[in-house]
Each structure stands twice: as structure tokens, then as C-alpha cells.
Amino acid sequence: MLTKRIIPCLDVRNRKVTKGVRFQGNIDLGDPIEMAVAYSEGGCDELVFYDITASAEHRPIDIEMVREVGRVIHIPFAVGGGLETLDDMYRVLAAGAEKVSVNSLAVKNPEMIAEGSRQFGAQCIVLGMDPLKTDDPRFPSGYQVTTRGFRELTNLGLKESKDMVESAPTSVKKGATKEEAASAKAKLIEAGAVVEIK
Q1: Is residue 130 annotated as a catalytic residue, yes or no?
Q2: Catalytic residue status for 88
Q3: Is-contact 185 173, C-beta < 8 A?
Q4: Mean model confidence pLDDT for the chain
Q5: Which sign, positive or negative, has the C-alpha torsion 116, 118, 120, 121?
Q6: Does residue 54 contact residue 91 with C-beta atoms inside 8 Å?
Q7: Is 116 domain-assigned?
Q8: What CATH number does residue 105 fall under?
Q9: Which of 11, 51, 62, 88 is catalytic?
Q10: Residues 158, 84, 22, 68: is their CA dihedral positive or negative?
Q11: pLDDT, mean of residues 117-139
Q12: How far apart are CA 100 and CA 95, in angstroms?
């Protein structure tokens, strides 16, 4: 029997944890450092932080926030958003994160998943995907992968992105309804991925 783990995923925008649907209509919920402490002390197994506007704004992740989180919690955490290079991954890991989550970078340059795995270890690389449900016949999976926080459509569906999934040890699908998440999870598992659904 598999052990269940609690891994909250916190979307961060302008140094605030925020909640929306597909990164739209967001409302601010609180300070990410304070929430990290609360989740850590509350018994969560890991945390994930996504800077939901870093890639769209073509800016690096807030590395000082990553350092602060690393100083105040004692559970593993992953960070995603605005990662463009191996150096970006290194800075996040050196600041205290156990894992990096790549999305736009993985679509733009899929080899970065394998390169990051070789450089830092496969356990440090998570593939995040933002798929939208579609009836477009070009996407037999029923999902079209987007980048930059659902702002840019790609020519990839879940099935077509199988090569990326196979090169990442963990995949995360964000911003979906429960039905979409369940369907996408089944398709990703068929492709051989370990899946965390947000």
C-alpha cells in the first residue's frame, strides 16, 4: 500500500500567496513565509511554491523568499516559476529548496529536464504542466499544454509531451477541475509518470 503524503502547492504573486482558477481572478491569502511555517508545523510532508507570474514577466524567481522559507521550515519544499537555465535551478536549490519545478522551460527546451537531472539528481527535478481541456482533434489526449501560466498555447498535448514526462521523475498538473485532473492523471500514469495533482 502506498503511503499518502500531504503536499500543499502555494501559488505566489507579488510576495503573497494567492488563489485563483488557472491564475485568473486571484485573491491574496497571506504571507508565504508565515503560511510555510503554519503548514510545516501542521504536519505537512512537503510544500511547493509556484511564482505564477515570473515566467510571464520574464523575471527570475524571488530567491530571497526561497532563502527565507528554507530558514524557517524543516520539511522539503519545491519551487517553480521563472526558471530559465541550470544556473537558475542551482540558485533555487542552493537557497534551500529540495526540488525545482520546470514548466515553460521544459516546453521550450525539453533537454533541460535531463540536464538538470544529471547535474543535480533526478529527485530534484519536477515537471509541472498547465494543460487546458480542448476538443481540438490535434490533441487526442483532450488536453493542450500551455506555458507562462496558461497565457501561451503550445502545439503539445499530454500524449505528445510523453518524452518530457518520461525524463522527469515527477509531474504536477495545475489549475484543473477535479474531473480534468483525474482524467489527466490517468493519461500521465499511462505515459509512465509519477503524478502529483494540484
Answers
A1: yes
A2: no
A3: yes
A4: 81
A5: positive
A6: no
A7: yes
A8: 3.20.20.70
A9: 11
A10: positive
A11: 89
A12: 11
Catalytic option among 51, 88, 130, 136 = 130
- The residue range of the domain holding 189 is 9-197
Task: State the pLDDT at residue 103.
Answer: 85
In a domain, 2, yes or no: no
Q: What is the Cα–Cα distance from 188 to 60, expressed in whole angstroms?
A: 29
Give the Cα-Cα-Cα angle 37, 39, 40 (nearest 5 degrees): 60
3-state helix, strand, coil in the chain (%, to 5): 35, 30, 35
pLDDT of residue 33: 96
pLDDT classification of 182: cutoffs 50, 70, 90: low
Q: What is the dihedral of CA 60, 37, 102, 125, to 10 degrees?
A: 120
pLDDT in tens, 17-30: 988 776 667 788 89
Question: Residue 153 has which C-alpha cell?
Answer: 498555447
Grid cell locating 91: 540558485
**Is 4 within the bounds of a domain?**
no
